[in-house]
Amino acid sequence: MEVQITDNQKNNNMKPSRATLKKQRIARDSFITTKKQITTMKTNILSFVTIAAIVLGISNTTFAATKNDSSAKNNQVSTVLTNISKINKIEVRGNVELFVSDGSSDQVKVYNRYYAESALVQNQNGVLRISSYSAQKLVVWVTADQLSAITVYDNAEVKSFGKLSPIEMDVTLHDNAYAQLDLDGFSANITLNNRAKADLIGNMSHCNLKYGRSTSVNSTNFVAEHLTKTVDGPNKSQAEDLAGL
């Protein structure tokens, strides 16, 4: 693993050679081919998991009905949104728990009775916006084929369901947002602001990790062939920050 400390002045004087750029293009093309080959396999596995979850959900609903627990039954309600396609970015705000999966096609499944909770799930120009400020957490599962960016605000959470294999992915966390991501891809830019937290595992070829003094990053089980860590905030050296990860 190669760890580089960012230095704007040094970076301005260091430009990758043609040979390096060629190697990066070859690696990226190889990764794209590999991703296409494993997408079908991953979709089949997730389909099996989904069927198991449905069976479990039916069982739980039956038990809830026996106990006359109406709140438990409400939690089993889900809605699959139609006319959703070409998702390349997701923005999440409020009291939301988002699960994200790779897939050969795009799909959005919303749990809870989100229409009654004044929640917003809107897809426009490739940007899927999800927000809910209800006391009950809104749970959403998004499957996407070409997802390249996730931005999370407030107390929202984003979690990968299975491994995410992005060619290029930008993840930005604001406020008290939280991310739990299992990545196995080519390139990722991960930025934490304010008091955001992240648990990262997996393997990436290239990763730029940027975080502040008040954020929290657990990258013990995360490996990148080319990893750059940038620390924002005064009165704390970069060496100390790297030692703390």
Name the descriptors:
single chain; about 240 residues; alpha/beta; 14-stranded mixed sheet; 4 helices; 14 strands; about 30% helix; disordered C terminus
Helix content: 25-40%
β-strand amount: 35-45%
Which outline best applies?
A: globular
For the sheet with most strands, the description reads: 14 strands, mixed
Low-confidence stretches: 7-12, 45-74, 235-245
Distance between the termini: 14 Å
Total count of strands: 14
What is the typical, i.e. mean, pLDDT?
77
Can you count the helices?
4
Please tell me about this protein's structure:
The structure is a single chain. This protein has 245 residues and is α/β, with parallel strands linked by helices. It has helices at 8-13, 18-67, 70-75, 238-243; strands at residues 2-5, 78-81, 89-94, 96-102, 107-111, 120-124, 127-132, 138-144, 149-152, 157-160, 168-173, 178-192, 197-212, 216-232. It is globular. The two termini are 14 Å apart.
